[in-house]
Design a protein that fits this description.
By secondary structure, the chain is α/β, with parallel strands linked by helices. The protein folds into two domains: 60 residues, Immunoglobulin-like (Sandwich); 190 residues, Rossmann fold. It has six helices and 16 strands. The strands form four sheets. The protein has a seven-stranded mixed β-sheet. Helix 1 runs parallel beside helix 2. The longest helix is centred in the C-terminal third of the chain and has 16 residues. The two termini are 24 Å apart. The relative contact order is 0.14.
Amino acid sequence: MWCPDTWRDYELLDCSGGEKLERWGGQLLVRPDPQAIWNTPRVHRGWKHNAGRYARSSSGGGKWENRSMPERWTVAWKELTFNVKPMNFKHTGLFPEQAANWDWARERIRAAGRPVSVLNLFAYTGGATLACASAGASVCHVDAARGMVQWARENARSSGLEDAPIRWIVDDCGKFVEREIRRGRFYDAIILDPPSYGRGPSGEVWKLEENLYPFLELVSRVLSPQPLFVLLNSYTTGLAPGVLTYLLETLFSAKYGGHAVSGELGLPVSESGLILPCGATGRWTASTAR
C-alpha cells in the first residue's frame, strides 16, 4: 500500500462507524468514509468538538453540520499551497492520499534529465498538475468542469506557479484527446483520474467498467515516442488494483516495453497506527525512462 509521508497540514486522526476525523490545517472535520466499517471507540475529542461534520441524509445527499470552519482556508504540501473549500457533497477539493503519487511523479520527472510534457486528464483542482509543474514539467490540465479548472488556477497562484508552463483546458477529456491526435501533439507522461460514473456535455454516459479500456486505447495514441510514465487512478468500489496493472501492461507495455505495478493508496490513522484504504493506483514506467 502506498501512503504519503510528507503531510504537515493534513492528518487522519481516527476513523470509525463509517466516518473519519481529519485535521485540515487548523480545522477538524468529520466526513463519511464507506471503508471504515469498524466501530472502535471514539476517544479523540475531535469527534465531539470539530469545526464541521458532513452528515448523510437518508433520502440521499447530505449537508455540513456544526459548521464553524471558514468558507475557505489553505493547507500546504511541501512548497505547494492548496485552497480548501468544503463542498456540498462532502469533498474539500483535495484528496490527500494522492500525495503519494505526486511524490512518485516528481521523482520520475526530475530523474528524466530532459524536458517533460505531462497531460493531466480529469485533473480536478490541480494537485498532480502543480506537483509536476513544480518539478519542472510543462503540463496540460484538462477537466470538463469550469469551476474545477478555476479552482486549480487559484491553487497555482497560491503556490507561486501562476507563470509556470501550464495550459488550462475546460473540455471533455475524450474529445480533447481526439483533437490532440488530429493535431499530432504528444506527451511524455499522462495522468488520469477518471470518474466511476458521469455524463458528458451532450448527455453521453460514462461508466468506468465499460469505457475505461477504449479510453486508454485512445490516450495511448498521444504518448510520445520517448514516453516516461502513465499514472492511472481509480476510486471505483470493487475494482481490484491488479485490473489497472492488466490494462497498463496490455496497452502500454505491449507497445513501449517497460512495466506496470499497481496498489492501494492509503492514509495512516494516528489513533490506531493502522492504514485506511483510499482507492487504487496503477503506475506504468517506460523502459526508456531514466
